Amino acid sequence: MKQTKKLLVVATIASAMLFSSCQKENQEPIKQYSTEVIVNDAVKAKLTEQGLTLDKAGKLLLDDKAKSLTSLDLSGTKITDFSVLKLFPKVEEVKLAKNDYKVKFDFAQLPKQITKVDLSDNELYEFIGLSKLDEKTKETIILKELKSLVLPASAKYNVETLPFYFKKMGDKITMTMQNKDGKAEPYTTLREVPDPDVRALLKETFPTKFEGDKLDLFKRFGESRNSDLNVSTYTYWGEIPLKDKALTSIEGVQYIVGDVEWRGAFTANFLNMKKHLSLPYLKVNANCSKVALTKVDVPILDLSAATNLISCVMGNNDLIKTVDLSNTKIGKIGVGGGDPFAGCRFAFGSCPQLEDIKLPNLDKVNEPTLAGCFLCALPKLKEVNLKQFQWVRQMDLAGLPNLTTLVYPDCKYSRNDYGVKLKWGEKPVPPVSDEDDDDDDDDDDDDDEYDGSKDPAILYLNIDKAIYDMPQTPEFINNVKSSVDLSADDKMTASGLFEIDYMGKDYIELYDFTKTLK
């Protein structure tokens, strides 16, 4: 009997263990999901297309597929938060094509294990986090080693990073770049200059930069590094390098202006041409001193590196919406003599889309000064704030129908036509010349000895009636008239800097407020 009971107990235990075992075999394994929630619907859809699983909250199932995946396609998702890549420990390739990326891409955003990147069909010009230049040795330092890089067509405009990264990496990387038809071709540092007249001018000015008829981004300037670049067909002073030339393109100039080794001024004035020329992107390097563009449609003017730029002129640009002068040298040097075009200045005219002009922070600058501020025929501009400047010799403000904020300079001194600095609040009286003295030689001697300290400064203020009717304008005039002489024009026409195109007219009627002064 006891034996029977023992057998029954053993049988019961065995049966229970067998039942438990069957339950475990039939039970699904516990699923592990990421703690991170993916909120980008396009990213979620793209992951699902590649056989990955997400729960309703957007958490990724960390199954064998997710853990073993080596290539991830995130094209067309417009992804900007790349933390999702950390969920795939073995992914080394990421496709980011057609993501509407504009201007800049920072490779530091990507996890270290990513060594293959596809950026095709984006509008990118700057590639950050790949390499940097050692200031002392001038050697390229690699920041991110890639095995494969597919670049958009716009990458051909990059001058400061890609050519040197490409040369430094050598056989370690496969680099391709889309052509104008979208086909990826092996990357090269050679660039075409389509217009024969522009090409001839560039080859003559910068001969060491060319390999045959193509400009080589990797080659150095040599003795031509300090040569100014002027591709104008018009100017109202000086030589006209491309006079009577019917240019079709200025493609190629951006490879000079963007190269940090080049030091000079850049001028492209086509005021005498009926059609506009264009560049999709222009970056100005740190050693460029002046930029003047007329009838060149440039939607993106990158001045982020232009730390020595003292003059920026742009006229008849139909595409530009914003100009950022924050990093430039404008306002940080004085103005000499009576030439309003000497020293620091900015001028923007007949740019129908221009909405915003950002100026440098001059809080720590001693006596911030402008030779000239020219803002004309800018129908979308809303704000002009010149308060930081302690002296502005010439201001042209007209054709600004949507201007709501206008702040005039906080003048604390002035400079006359002799370049003499004058104390604010005291207007000197010029010496009376001796008209009865017929001795020309004596007059010449007197002129040579005169230091100009008795001549008052002149403030040129050319404004239309709408600007004058803003209450701050008469207030400013009253505040400065005891310290300077005031001058005003009655009409603004083509200035040589740009062509007036305002409300169907080629001029702007100005208001001569000097007739009201007492």
Q: What percent of residues are in strands?
A: 25-35%
Biggest pleated sheet? 9 strands, parallel
Instruction: Please state the average pLDDT score.
Output: 89
Number of strands: 36
Shape: elongated
Q: What structural category do the secondary elements indicate?
A: alpha/beta
- The tally of helices reads 9
Runs in which pLDDT lies below 50 for 5 or more consecutive residues are 336-341
- End-to-end Cα distance: 134 Å
Helix content range of the residues, please?
10-25%
Q: Strand order of the main beta sheet, please?
A: 16-17-20-23-25-27-29-33-34
Summarize the structure.
The protein is of the alpha/beta class and 518 residues long. 16% of the residues lie in helices and 26% in strands.
